[in-house]
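ESCALATION

Customer reports they have been waiting on this structure for their group meeting. Please prioritize. Original submission:
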Amino acid sequence: MNVFKDIVDLLEKRGFEFEVLEHGPAYTSEDASKIRGSSLKMGTKAMVLKIKDGFIMAILSAEKKISSKKLRGLTGSRELRFATPEEVEKITHCKIGSVPPFPILFDLDYYLDGSVMENEEIVFSAGSHVKSIKMKAEDFNKIMKKKSADFSE
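Update from on-call: job pushed to the front of the queue and completed.
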């Protein structure tokens, strides 16, 4: 699986405009925003979590943190933990810090925090620590089928 290529193919197929950013290695949202020259708020992070029935993806602005209480309420699962690095790589074929916010590529159920849609444009890691994609938040929302919730703090 070539995650970067799959994202580009998906965006091109839908006719969305986007920009590929190649940069030095970034392993955290903070590092990525500095290297890319974008605000932390504009950054979009994808986190894989384990719940009782399997795995989900939580997508939120890089400046926010997950509220476990709110996300447990949304999922209806009392069990909630971050996936291990090994689990993340097995599910997404990506290392932690490079997982793109495209759960459809990994057949994962997901929760999209409303904080992502507060931006005109978003930027996210694209399956690599050295490649990111910048696109309109509105177009991203079309892919996500406007399924947003509030689970950040």
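Sent to customer with the following note: The chain has one domain: 3-149.
Escalation resolved.
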